[in-house]
Amino acid sequence: MTAKVSNKILIVDDEPDIALILKLHMEDAGYDTAWAQDGKMALEMLAEGGYSLVLLDIRMPRLGGVEVLRCIRESGSDVAVIMMTAHGNEDLAVECMKAGAIDYFPKPFALDDVLPRVQRAIAYRSALIERQRLEREKADFVSMLSHDLKNPITAVIGSIDIMREGRLGPVNIEQVEYLQAAIDSCNEVVDMIDNLLDINRFEAGKMQMNLRCYNPVEIVTAVANRFSKAAEYERISLNVDLSAAVPFVNVDRNAFTRIIANLLGNAVKFTPEGGGITITCQSIASGDISAAKIPAYVNIPEGFSRNRQFLLLSISDTGDGIPAEDLGRIFERFFQSPRSGRERGGAGLGLAYCRMAMEKMDGLIWAESELGNGSTFKLMLPGQDEDVTL
Fold first, then answer.
1. Interatomic CA distance for residues 98 and 41, integer angstroms
2. Which of 136, 200, 219, 318 could be disulfide-bonded to 374 (CB atoms 3.0-4.6 Å)?
3. Which three-class secondary structure state does DSSP give residue 88?
């Protein structure tokens, strides 16, 4: 249940006549009001709480309105503030809005203009409080996913793995396959949780990256080796064709590994039996960047083209492909193409994580596809000065 929001208004003005007019007008409209004759008194009254709106005069003795506004915002108070002055100008109004005011009106004022402004400000504050409540619930839900759901699933994976390995008694080949399928399904849920947690960290600006210089061939090879058995089990060929000379890249190793794993996992999931997946890795000079045909929907960092060389990593599959109209949306969270062919589950979070992580590392990601002709996902990262020769 949402708590009832107070609609008490604090009028802050050193001119008693103006304050009285406002007070009577607001009380006629059904609001409870109080008056502070200067800024210091206003801050003392606000510290006691219970106010939803402040009508704040800019020019006052002892402590001016702009200073009071800054103190209110620095205190973390969510009270709405409307500024008012008889000596204002447009620049001062802009300064107040930047400092956290919701609205601004000059004096003398028309009473029939003040009331709608007050109503809008209070409605805005109510919406803000509700949004903050929802954000807290979202944070609590994410925390629950992290601890109350992920940890038990990890324990389930460990228990099933002990059974699969025959440490609790002999198991036949068919049983091993079913147990492995259960482990794979649990791992998919854990991956979804990890993607959701990290996406929320990206959006909250709390995702930390440990960027260092790495040989991408080593990372790509290690991830490809992890997926070789899964591809073999699905009767899919996995081909790795890496260039002999590619630049180092400045990445977070864990994030870059997970991006490749997400893309390879999708490729295995959507490639039919008998199909193939190909991973290529090459160096591109700055002058050849146009040949990469980067789509218009890709957010290119400022100064990206000024790098001397780039790493271009491609992961191609022979699956059903993606409709052209969906290529710019598949990196949005929870989006799944309705005509992507085989429906193999997923929450539409993996590609959203890939995009956010690549942007955090000043890289690009996009997809090329045609229905019926498979898909190619491409990663481009600025290369460092030194080439790696295998």
1. 24
2. 318
3. coil
